[in-house]
Amino acid sequence: MNIHNVSLTTSAVSEKQYPKTNIPEIAFAGRSNVGKSSLINKLLNRKSLARVSQTPGKTVTINFYNVDDTVHLVDLPGYGYAQRPRTELQKWGDMIESYLRDREELIKTVLLVDSRHAPSKDDLTMIDWIKAYDDSGVIVVATKADKLKKSEIEPNLTMISEKLGLDENDILVPFSIKDDEGKISVWDMINMMLADVYEDEDEGK
Ligand SMILES: Nc1nc2c(ncn2[C@@H]2O[C@H](COP(=O)(O)OP(=O)(O)O)[C@@H](O)[C@H]2O)c(=O)[nH]1
Ligand SMILES: [Mg+2]
Q1: What 3-state class would DSSP assign to 71?
Q2: Which of 5, 26, 30, 108 is least enclosed by beta carbons within 10 angstroms?
Q3: Has residue 96 been placed in a domain?
Q4: 27-66 pLDDT, tens digit each
Q5: Which residues pair with 73 in a beta bridge?
Q6: CATH number for the domain that contains residue 139
Q7: Can you tell me the distance from the alpha carbon of 155 to that of 153, in angstroms, rounded to the nearest whole number?
Q8: 177 Cβ below 6 A of ligand 1
Q9: What is the whole-number distance in angstroms between the Cα of residue 162 and the centre of ligand 1?
Q10: What's the pLDDT tens digit per position in 168-191?
Q11: Structurally, how many domains does the chain consist of?
């Protein structure tokens, strides 16, 4: 994809603030610090459009990045951060669930997990949630692949795939911000999904 104009459209704390434009959305979910913002920056060739934080957690917002009025890449609030007060957790859950359930523009939620570790209990809950609202196959991105030795990548992907219970409809790809391989794979998938959406729209005309 040739990217021309990218901007943060909205940093939403509630549904009312979600963009009103009807551009398809690809959302990125995963625990705090897994690399969601870094992946979005990498996809968009931007150093710090999406805020990459050293101290994860804090505000619960859904951030929408408009790419050439063609797609919104959506940075969902992270989970798995221990010191969150209960009210915050509740807010996080309500926000994510209503977004996954009700958001018409959402065409796919991509789950990010750390390529070095077994998925957490929260990751398993998240994939169940994603599957509950989309039965067309999950895309899982295993982040920080540069932190593994080359020989560790395949065995780790196999382990992650087993733990998440992935099947032939699901896709698991390694990703790193240090090279362009993962970026190309993720863009290929996004472009395929967008082609479907825009093709259907054309047919509907
Ligand atoms: N080595 C390496 N570090 C990464 C990668 N992706 C993210 N990080 C680092 O992981 C930390 C958390 O990243 P961030 O994008 O803020 O995670 P988020 O909380 O999921 O948005 C930052 O210090 C990033 O620089 C990667 O592919 N390789
Ligand atoms: Mg982030």
Answers
A1: strand
A2: 5
A3: yes
A4: 999 999 999 999 999 999 987 777 765 555 566 789 999 9
A5: 26, 65
A6: 3.40.50.300
A7: 6
A8: yes
A9: 24
A10: 999 999 999 999 999 999 999 999
A11: 1
